Amino acid sequence: MTPAMTRIRLITALLGAAVLASCSKDGVQSITEPTAGAYIKFYNFGVNAPSVNFFANDTKLTAISSTSCTPPSNPPNPACTSTGIESTNGTAYGSVGNGGLYSSIAPADYTFSGRISAATDNGLSVAKLTSTLAAGKYYSLYLSGFYNTSTKTVDAFIVEDPFSDDIDFTKSNVRFVNAISNSNPLTLYALNPALGDSVLIGSSIAYKSAGPFVAVPGAVYNLTARLAGSNTAVMVLNAVSFSPNHTYTVSARGDITVVSTTAANRPILSNTANR
Fold this sequence. Notes:
Elements: H1 3-23, E1 38-44, E2 52-56, E3 59-60, E4 65-66, E5 85-86, E6 95-96, E7 103-105, E8 108-116, E9 125-133, E10 138-148, E11 153-160, E12 171-178, E13 186-192, E14 197-205, E15 209-210, E16 214-217, E17 219-227, E18 233-242, E19 247-253, E20 268-273
Parallel strand pairs: 1-10, 12-19
Antiparallel strand pairs: 1-6, 1-7, 2-3, 2-8, 4-5, 8-9, 10-11, 12-15, 12-16, 13-14, 13-17, 17-18, 19-20
């Protein structure tokens, strides 16, 4: 090995050591400490509710962008081909804002609102809810109940998502939320058809309430919701995959009196991954 090559390798090693040293103090990111923010997810489960964008005070946290302009503007709008223009679609009934992801927000007291995203009544608030968000905690906000077309309002509630810090690579954590305003308390069971075993996920969960997260073996389950004290299924969701070391929320939405199996406002179970 020539002296020149030795010097090159020595310089490379010193540079690598300098990079490591710079990362070991005052780093931009630390994966061993919790972040200082709060996190919130938004559900539009208000029966017949319009599509909305969700706000914290006057800061918009959910929206849908489009890179096309229909009809085309003249002169052309630069946003149509760059940052995108905001769609009027918003978060529709039965959907979760931001593709089901949490929005990060500073811990504080907030007035949350769902505001109409369509061109007609654009920006009109159909629901408001005040809540305090704490650092490092996760929350889910639901539009729920029935949309009143006269007052243009719908109900809303918020629940904390208290994830477990325990890691079990063989189990999932699942909980049940009841967003059906005209139902009695509901109980949710998860049946593993491969084994024939049933797991109680949430017992007698009242409207606007969430059950605790329950650890279940990772598998494919058939879910059944019953009115408390009844053996008759009022909602069924089959072939739901709960992956090990993941967390899920199963929510009930709709009108409990609807018996149709195809109506949009029928009682429905929805499964959403929390993490």
